[in-house]
């Protein structure tokens, strides 16, 4: 026999042997399959959902915005010059937005009044409940939102009163194309012709309304240069400009952040799964030692063994990944249905190749990283092991695995960082995960070393329990890592979820007034207070002057920074974006504390002054004596900063970033805003009715629905976080079970021998209990510290919420986790204990 | 680890095994203390000795499962002292067949797949047909698709013999081939082993402590405390 043999096993032959073995021994790789399925599934669903929403925002940008570009200004119409400039770009649609109240007999409803011209909508169509696709309503008529119809008890054909006008209800709105671009609504919409708010007496000088002008470009052109050009042409106009590619910037930011957070949660699940994958593949290979050695006796080289085992692991990993991707796509419609009222979501089964590719890449890289070490060990497993004792551990070949692990980790880090919206948060997460793994690894090593050095107890069972933790081939390291990660995940989730719940309760202000009222004429303030007292005696009424304006520039006189020149607003200066509410006051507003500078005296008549929020001042590097350039009603004025204030945002009342000295703004046409707080119980229905009657040009915002909306939003966020995190928990449980099952193999031999020597089942159970109780006790303390630490980072640093965990819930969940660990460890020993020793011996 | 060296087909020299001064130490215990042994091609040889005498360790070294740290060893024309672990695996491939006391079949593969595997490792195109023939020859033609767990101990050892002999090796090692079997089954297995060896014309080295079995070989080498204490022709 002397034919030349192939030095390297051909791939086809390797695959044939691999497949043959796999079909009989697939069970051992179930943990790999389950972990990858869960991790990749979660990432695929999160990625698909996020990307699908972003795509909707991109592709439906024109419809969502209602044009290619939108200019909005507060409390004024656009000038002829401004309109002419827009007219040169294409078709223009003008209109206004204001809060208002409509009534039908005694029923009154606060609404968002949207007045539009004949060109509206420039993109998309308004769909009515009766199926008609329409534009502007007919003369003397209105389209009303479903909420209005329900509240006023009117339907198509009925009439509603708006200020001094009566309008016919021509249809009930089913789908408004630009609803999302209009921003978060506090009341259902009523759509009317452009002149209606003026004719109804709602829009007068100083009224709190907003003009919106949209343009559909006549030609193919980029929107960004148009915006730059408009800013250059009208630098003091106070324009808030939006383009079709950023039709709803708030939604985009929200989706970016939430998407990234959920991706990190998914990645955490995959990391936990990775530990399970490593453990699962290790014990699978351990069970294959005989086969590996036998193949080597038959002439298989280390390379052949590596190829065969790699093919087996890779094929199962591919199946797990593919199943995860399919599950991710299938589960997305459930998520889109849940979010359909809140965000633009696609219908059907969205497939986002890039998101799926990323999920698959993460899954395969994690599998690669965590299986590299066990596969390298299997490669070096000696043929001679067939003739040696079974306790001899797999060879240590970590050096061979070092490069694949380093490359895999680098690729995971790079993929996460490339797609990160908040690189610092992502980097912290990745660093934290690595540190956590290292810490748990060290802890496992420490426990092993410490137990090995302890004096050997006289009791043989206790001695066995301790020996199980440190003997050659002991699974202590894997158990500590898996249990540590799993229990930490339990604690983390309990702390996050209870903190979020507590925040939702605490953030919905206890002191919220019942109504915000806009546009109370400044010469009727006293009468407004009297009306409220007449119908709601004892109610607390606060009124403040209300104007809108935009900060154009800030800094030291002569060295001012113009906001229009900044490509990106510095961190913390978000409140300076666009037009904001402004007010003036003689005294420091309630709930505010002066932290620097002085408040102006009563009847101050010197140069105009402003008091600003201390946080903004810090973010912008502003100090007392610096200057702000502010545009109010299109007129630019410079004001000097005279003081900095700390604002208590928890009180939901009038809180303004900028408060001016009265002489700075008093001459600008404006109205007042008011809060009405009916001290005991709900406001009487007559109050809203009487206010609508006595102040037809004012509009009321009810805080109840607003708070409900905020509460719903927070609940949905918390639900999304918990849904993604529950995948991490599932992966954690799978890992726990896998680690315990892997450790069981080593315990079986000892248990059988001890039973042959006369140990009772109870004693053997106590050995197991003792061993796991020791581990669980140490890990409970570690997990408590790690889990709450990370939860604190997420709640306080990432979401900027208060740290309000429910400790009873946290301890209960940790207790449940420990019970699960101990319960499963005990349950895993039962089959061995139930078997007769003679039978068990034969099966060894 | 160095890359596996190229194994060139070489004419089988007159001696199947040429060992000089083999030394093996495991931990702090010296197991083999200078073994000199020459086995001619086609010879049948029994390695006798009490437990702990070093029989199995010598077989492990001669089959390349273990590397001696002293002495020289040429097996089937290959200098084993110059080969690393992978080189030794390649040297075994197709040239050396091993039958072990505990059978060590691949539990996840059928009898046919077990026997086909070494042929596939060699790159044989007709691996399946040859494996089936070999199983027929050991009387297991009706058990091709059975897994090891579905076979009796004697049947498992027949599969192991078929697996060892299927590649037509120049050398066959059998370590206590009847150790796990009853006397009748064991005798049948030994008959089969000798018959198949004769057909293949291979050198056979049996490790045993059964003197009766040893007498069936042409030559008996007895080990004691890691040394050869006698080397005689069988009675």
Task: Explain what you see.
The complex is a heterodimer of chains A (844) and B (235). With 844 residues, chain A is of the alpha+beta class. Chain A has 4 domains: 1-60 and 250-421, no CATH class; 67-246, no CATH class; 429-511 and 707-844; 540-677, no CATH class. Helices cover 53% and strands 18% of the residues of chain A. Chain A is built from 23 helices and 22 strands. In chain A, the strands form 2 sheets. Chain A has a 6-stranded mixed β-barrel. A 6-stranded mixed β-barrel of chain A has the order 13-15-20-17-19-18. In chain A, a hairpin with a 2-residue loop joins strand 2 (90-104) and strand 3. The longest helix of chain A is centred in the last third of the chain and has 54 residues, at 703-756. Chain A is elongated and about 100 Å long. The relative contact order of chain A is 0.12. Mean pLDDT of chain A is 81; it is low at 389-395. Chain B has 235 residues and is an alpha/beta fold. Chain B is 31% helix and 27% strand. Chain B has helices at residues 55-62, 85-92, 111-122, 127-137, 153-165, 183-200, 211-214; strands at 15-26, 29-40, 44-48, 70-75, 78-79, 96-99, 171-175, 203-207, 219-224, 227-233. Chain B has a 6-stranded mixed sheet. A 4-stranded antiparallel sheet of chain B has the order 2-1-4-5, with helices on one face. In chain B, strand 1 and strand 2 (29-40) form a beta hairpin. In chain B, helix 3 (111-122) crosses helix 4 (127-137). Chain B is globular, with a radius of gyration of 17 Å. Mean pLDDT of chain B is 86; it is low at 1-10. At the A-B interface, helix 1, helix 9 and helix 10 of A face helix 2 and helix 3 of B.
């Amino acid at each position: 026999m002397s034919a030349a043999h192939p030095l390297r096993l051909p791939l086809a032959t390797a695959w044939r042997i691999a497949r043959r073995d796999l079909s009989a021994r697939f069970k051992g790789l179930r943990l790999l399959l389950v972990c990858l399925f869960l991790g990749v599934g979660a990432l695929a669903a999160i990625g698909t959902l996020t990307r699908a929403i972003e795509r909707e925002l991109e592709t439906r940008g024109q419809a969502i915005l209602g044009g290619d570009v939108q200019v909005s200004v507060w409390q004024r119409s656009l000038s002829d010059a401004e309109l002419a400039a827009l007219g040169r770009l294409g078709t223009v649609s003008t209109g206004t937005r204001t809060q208002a109240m409509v009534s039908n007999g005694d029923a009154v409803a606060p609404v968002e009044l949207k007045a539009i011209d004949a060109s509206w909508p420039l993109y998309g169509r308004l769909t009515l409940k009766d199926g008609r696709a329409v534009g502007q309503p007919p003369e003397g008529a209105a389209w009303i939102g479903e909420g209005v119809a329900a509240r006023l008890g009117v339907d198509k054909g009925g009439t509603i009163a708006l200020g001094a006008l009566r309008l016919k209800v021509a249809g009930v709105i089913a789908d408004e194309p630009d609803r999302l671009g209009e921003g978060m609504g506090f009341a259902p919409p009523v759509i009317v012709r452009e002149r209606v708010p003026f004719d109804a007496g709602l829009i007068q000088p100083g009224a709190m309304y907003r003009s919106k002008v949209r343009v559909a470009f006549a030609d193919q052109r980029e929107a960004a240069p148009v915006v730059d050009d408009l800013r250059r042409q009208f630098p003091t106009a106070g324009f808030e400009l939006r383009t079709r590619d950023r039709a709803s910037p708030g939604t985009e930011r929200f989706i970016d952040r939430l998407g990234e957070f959920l991706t990190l949660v998914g990645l955490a699940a995959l990391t936990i799964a990775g530990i399970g994958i490593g453990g699962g593949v290790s014990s699978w290979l351990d069970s294959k030692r005989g086969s590996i050695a036998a193949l080597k006796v038959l002439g298989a080289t280390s390379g052949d063994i590596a190829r065969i085992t790699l093919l087996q692991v890779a094929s199962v990993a591919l199946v797990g990944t593919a199943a995860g991707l399919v599950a991710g796509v299938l589960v997305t419609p459930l998520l889109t249905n849940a979010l359909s009222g809140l965000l633009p979501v696609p219908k059907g089964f969205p497939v986002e190749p890039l998101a799926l590719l990323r999920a698959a890449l993460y899954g395969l890289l994690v599998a690669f990283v965590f299986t590299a070490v066990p596969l390298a060990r299997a490669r070096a497993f000696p043929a001679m092991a067939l003739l040696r004792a079974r306790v001899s551990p797999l060879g240590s070949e970590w050096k061979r695995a070092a490069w694949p692990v380093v490359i895999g980790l680098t690729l995971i880090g790079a993929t996460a960082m490339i797609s990160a919206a908040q690189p610092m948060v992502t980097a912290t997460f990745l660093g934290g995960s690595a540190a956590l793994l290292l810490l748990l690894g060290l802890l496992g090593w420490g426990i092993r070393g410490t137990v090995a050095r302890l004096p050997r107890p006289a009791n043989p069972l206790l001695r066995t329990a301790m020996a199980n933790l440190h003997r050659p081939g002991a699974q202590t390291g894997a158990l500590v890592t898996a249990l540590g990660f799993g229990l930490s995940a339990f604690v983390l989730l309990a702390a996050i979820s209870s903190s979020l719940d507590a925040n939702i309760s605490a953030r919905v202000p206890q002191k919220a007034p019942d109504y915000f009222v806009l546009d109370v004429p400044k010469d009727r303030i006293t009468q407004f207070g009297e009306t409220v007292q007449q119908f709601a005696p004892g109610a607390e009424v606060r009124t403040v002057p209300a104007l809108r304006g935009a900060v154009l520039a800030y800094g030291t006189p002569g060295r001012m920074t113009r906001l229009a020149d900044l490509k990106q607003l510095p961190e913390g200066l978000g409140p300076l974006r666009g037009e904001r509410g402004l007010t003036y006051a003689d005294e420091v507003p309630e709930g505010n504390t002066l932290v620097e500078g002085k408040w102006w005296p009563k009847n101050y008549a010197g140069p105009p002054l402003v008091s600003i929020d201390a946080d903004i001042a810090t973010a912008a590097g502003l100090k007392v004596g610096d200057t702000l350039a502010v545009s109010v009603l299109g007129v630019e004025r410079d004001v000097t900063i005279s003081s900095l204030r700390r604002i208590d945002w928890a009180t939901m009342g009038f809180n303004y970033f900028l408060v001016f000295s009265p002489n700075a703004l008093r001459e600008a046409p404006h109205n007042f805003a008011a809060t009405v707080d009916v001290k005991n119980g709900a406001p009487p229905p007559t109050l809203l009715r009487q206010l609508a009657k006595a102040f037809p040009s004012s509009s009321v915002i009810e805080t109840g629905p607003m708070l409900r909306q905020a509460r719903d939003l927070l609940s949905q966020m918390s639900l999304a976080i918990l849904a993604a995190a529950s995948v991490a928990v599932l992966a954690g449980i799978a890992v726990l079970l896998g680690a315990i099952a892997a450790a069981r193999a080593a315990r079986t031999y000892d248990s059988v021998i001890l039973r042959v020597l006369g140990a009772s089942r109870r004693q053997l159970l106590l050995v197991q209990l003792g061993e796991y109780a020791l581990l669980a006790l140490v890990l409970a303390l570690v997990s408590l510290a790690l889990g709450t630490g990370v939860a604190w980072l997420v709640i306080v640093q990432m979401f900027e919420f208060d740290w309000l965990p429910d400790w009873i819930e946290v301890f209960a969940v940790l207790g449940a986790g420990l019970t699960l660990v101990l319960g499963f460890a005990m349950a895993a020993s039962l089959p061995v204990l139930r078997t007769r020793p003679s039978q068990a011996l034969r099966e060894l | 680890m160095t890359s596996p060296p190229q194994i060139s087909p070489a004419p089988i020299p007159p001696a199947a095994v040429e060992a000089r001064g083999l030394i093996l130490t495991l931990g702090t215990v010296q197991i083999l203390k200078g073994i000199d042994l020459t086995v001619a091609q086609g010879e049948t040889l029994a390695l006798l000795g009490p437990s702990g005498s070093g029989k199995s360790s010598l077989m492990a070294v001669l089959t390349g499962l273990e590397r001696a740290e002293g002495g020289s060893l040429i097996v089937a024309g290959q200098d084993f002292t110059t080969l690393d672990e992978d080189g030794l695996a390649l040297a075994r491939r197709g040239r050396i067949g091993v039958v072990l006391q505990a059978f060590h079949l691949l539990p996840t593969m059928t009898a046919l797949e077990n026997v086909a595997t070494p042929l596939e490792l060699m790159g044989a195109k007709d691996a399946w047909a040859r494996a089936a023939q070999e199983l027929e020859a050991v009387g297991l033609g009706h058990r091709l698709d059975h897994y090891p767990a579905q076979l009796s101990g004697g049947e498992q050892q027949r599969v192991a013999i078929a697996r060892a002999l299927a590649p037509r090796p120049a050398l066959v090692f059998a370590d206590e081939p009847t150790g796990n079997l009853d006397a009748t089954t064991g005798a049948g297995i030994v008959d089969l082993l000798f018959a198949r060896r004769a057909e293949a014309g291979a050198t056979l080295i049996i490790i045993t402590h059964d003197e009766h079995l040893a007498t069936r070989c042409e030559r008996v080498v007895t080990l004691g405390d890691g040394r050869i204490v006698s080397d005689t022709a069988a009675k």
